[in-house]
């Protein structure tokens, strides 16, 4: 991917900035192409997705600086829902206003929606064939290597002082060893950042040559990026539009199928889940699984795990697993509809109510967050959250590694310590071999994400057919 030609007076050809940055600062067609390219590479969960955006927008195109990118990411980590998609909406808003945020957020999930619909249909209609099993056997280890690369990329850019490294390690330990709730970790990191700024302000003012790595300088100045003054009028308008956009499809489905239909139940349940899914897909997985399996009976425990595997191997947020849950549940309880029609309706409605709140959160809060960007106390708190994000992503990488390289794990509790310990007798030698091959491709051969995924998928299929 090449960087668009630029000039010193207009960061990107054809860009224009009006009063208070209300016009596009990047030509809209260029932004759409960039977001489409990003959407095809968003494998590997939030770690991989954030790394793809960082590489494309910060390092290659240089449309936004690393510090501005981190500031937006820190805010998104505070919100319920998929932080990577919300980060895409935020950056799209900075570059092209409201339409930029809408396009960035929609394209971010669209390939995953289509891919998971197809895979869900294959699963329901034809089960786990040798071909699909073989492809997944190679894709999962490849994603593990991609996540490992992402942890290194994000950590190298964000941990600019030894104290921030300690904060990242502490966050990782809190999640992986002591099972501290995600919101508590984020709140503690924000408090630590604020306290550190008061006690050691130099930690947050490091410049290049003194241990920090802010990445290449952006071609677009911070002042040129889109911004709007926060106001009650604007906030009420965003809330009203968001509630209407969320409510109308759900109301139509409820009126057409009945208040007690599986579609209405799924729409209401996943609307509520979208508001409490702090910590990303892994953090909310137990909550969704408990309800989907035991409360509503939409699928069985083994299918919940397979749904997560499907979401892992498609682009887009891992929370897309709820689409698989709704697809299977509606297919098996279609009411008066054809099962395939019911499955499609349930999946699309669930996807809609899951992601509409993400746009509302960003459009509602971004102007205030931008205004507070110069506030040293707020910036310090967000810097602490950014450091914790590295630990959070590392914890996700560990979780994925354990469940990719071993067939079973045991939950062990020793007082405050809670660990998922893999059963070493159930290790997967093929998965380990493909993981090592993927690490070689990415770190040594420097292959692209898509090329690595393709090669590993082929390796998985060959090993499955041979053994």
Automatic annotation (TrEMBL):
Q: Where is this region: Disordered?
A: 1-20
In Gene Ontology terms, what is one molecular function of this protein?
Answer: chromate transmembrane transporter activity
| Compartments in which it is found | Cell membrane
List the keywords (alphabetical): Cell membrane, Membrane, Transmembrane, Transmembrane helix
The UniProt entry lists membrane topology as: Multi-pass membrane protein
Query: Which InterPro entries does the record cross-reference, listed alphabetically?
Result: Chr_Tranpt_l_chain, Chromate_transpt
Transmembrane parts of this sequence: 102-124, 131-152, 164-197, 235-256, 268-288, 309-331, 343-366, 378-406
* Compositionally biased intervals (Low complexity): 1-19
Give me the Gene Ontology terms describing cellular component. plasma membrane
Pfam families tied to this protein: Chromate_transp
The coiled-coil regions, if any, are none
* Domain of life of the source: Bacteria
Entry similarity comment? Belongs to the chromate ion transporter (CHR) (TC 2.A.51) family.
| NCBIfam families membership | 2A51
Indicate what this protein is called per its UniProt record: Chromate efflux transporter
- Which organism is this protein's natural source? Actinomadura rudentiformis
